[in-house]
Amino acid sequence: MIFSVGFLVTIFLIRKVHSLVEITNFECESLDRNFSDFEYCRLKSVNRTYKYISLKVHLFQTPVNQIKVNTAIYKRLNGYKPFLYNVTVDGCKFIKNQNSNPVTKFIFGVFKDATNMNHSCPYDHDIIMEKLSAESINFQITKILPFPEGKYMVKMNWFAYDINRAIIRLYITLTNSI
Fold first, then answer.
1. How far apart are CA 79 and CA 132, in angstroms?
2. CA-angle at 42, arms to 143 and 18, nearest 5°
3. I need a labelling partner for 88 at 20 to 30 A (CA). Which of 33, 65, 96, 164 fits?
């Protein structure tokens, strides 16, 4: 009887442990300012517990019909080291059939509701992502596919017509709490 009560208490405590995502930094870099440039790229801290990220990219050479995105996740271990995923996908084909690549679908799921990039090519307008909150990221990273505790960087290289046009880096810390 004592063993079973201890087991139930342990299971209850394990169930109560959950992860928490904190956005620590957000960087955007335009590599070809004749093609595109960032109007803003910001991490906004509303209060101690609510942070969000936003960006707006002006596209100067529209329409854009060829997009590739390389997304890599890095974990901080004496510098940032590759961790788990490094995928490159044809963005135009992926948007048409999101089930074609489950890893990219997972990554896109983090920000798809906060952006206007949710239609297929061509893109003939500015790209906007508004108020992607830590809570949205937290849901995807802790509920859908749990990640271990640590500091991470998500780096996205955006290619148009096979030329690297922009780099976006998102830094997060993932902690477990009871």
1. 26
2. 20
3. 33
Residue 60 lies in a domain: yes
The number of C-alpha atoms within 13 Å of 44 and in the hemisphere containing its C-beta is 11
Domain count along the chain: 1
Rounded-to-integer distance, Cα 170 and Cα 140, Å: 15
Question: With contact defined as beta carbons under 8 Å apart, do 69 and 55 qualify?
Answer: no
Percent over 70 (pLDDT), the chain: 85
Distance CA 60, CA 35 (A): 5
CATH number at residue 67: 2.70.220.10
42-67: pLDDT as tens digits:
999 888 778 899 999 999 999 999 99
Q: Which domain holds residue 76?
A: 20-177
The predicted pLDDT at position 40 comes to: 96
| CA–CA gap between residue 155 and residue 131 (Å, rounded) | 19
Closest CA to 91 of 162, 22, 169, 27: 162
In the chain, the DSSP E strands lie at 18-30, 36-45, 51-59, 67-76, 80-90, 127-133, 150-160, 163-177
Phi and psi angles of residue 91, each rounded to the nearest 5 degrees, phi first: -65, -40
- Tokens 């854009």 locate to 64
